[in-house]
Amino acid sequence: MNHEPRPSAFIFDLDGVITDTAELHYVAWRALALDLGIAFGEQDNEQLKGLSRMDSLERLLALGTQQFGAGEKLAMAERKNTHYLALVEKMTPADLLPGALDALHSARAAGCGVALASASKNAALVLERLGIARVFDHVVDSNHIRNSKPHPEVFLAAARALGAAPQDCVGIEDAVAGVQAIRAAGMFAVGVGNARVLLAADQVIADLRHFVPSNYLRGMHRLRWVNET
Ligand code: B16
Ligand code: MG
Q1: I need a labelling partner for 62 at 20 to 30 A (CA). Which of 113, 199, 208, 221 fits?
Q2: Which domains can be identified in the chain, with CATH numbers?
Q3: Region of residue 138 (phi > 0: left; psi between -120 and 50: alpha; otherwise: beta)
């Protein structure tokens, strides 16, 4: 771990940016929905990206008509998570998304701080499975914060841990709620995915193969990028 302040820093989201766990979350949520007799499709799963586990559950239950108590909801979230963890156990470094490893190494090679800002309580385990736990100076996930994305807390906590001012940080996100969190933190927001969806991003790229850390090193907080996709 390097605790020295850096001139600039990159703060990566995990799911959907570095690896595609959305599909695994989908499989586990769909199984729960099936048990509850709730119709739950890919479009519904799209709305859960970047949300915390309990917020995701509330969205799923809102698709049905039944009411549940707090204890029942906790048990459902636990059941979904057990299923999800069984799927995560099968992950390997081959599950890194294209360009992810290069992007992380290039950011480090440029002398920048590199942190993770994830809504997932399972982030550390996923990083281990992917073989990249040591690439990050800091990992901030839902275990460390009170407010979920789109609240800026997770990105601000990552910047603080890196000793970087928010305006000197670039955040990289695939979810609408995540891009909103980065902007609310006062950082430059790189959206990964569809520019028609990630409307609040300063720049949108299709995936991390298009991410060149050295491009951001000078005056990045003054630049407004043109969306590329
Ligand atoms: P867990 P990210 C988020 O991770 C996922 O995008 C979101 O779909 C998931 O519900 C959330 O983590 C919570 O995950 O149940 O593992 O705590 O995109 O912020 O890295
Ligand atoms: Mg994500």
Answers
A1: 199
A2: 9-20+94-222 (3.40.50.1000), 22-88 (1.10.150.240)
A3: beta
In angstroms, rounded to a whole number, what is the distance separating the alpha carbons of residues 137 and 157?
13
How far does residue 157's CA lie from ligand 1's centre (Å)?
A: 17
The ligand minimizing its distance to the Cα of 25 is 1
pLDDT of residue 4: 53
What's the CA-to-centroid distance between 79 and ligand 2, angstroms?
22
Which pLDDT score is estimated for 51? 87
**Of 8, 1, 11, nearest in space to 115 by CA:** 11
Ligand 1 neighbourhood includes 56 CB (under 6 angstroms): yes
Record the pTM: 0.88
Q: Report the candidate in 1, 11, 27 with the shortest Cα–Cα distance to residue 211.
A: 11
pLDDT tens for residues 168-189? 999 999 999 999 999 999 999 9
pLDDT for the residue numbered 220: 54
Q: Which protein residue has the closest C-alpha to ligand 1 atom 1?
A: 120
Cα separation of the two ends of the chain:
35
| 13 labelled catalytic | yes
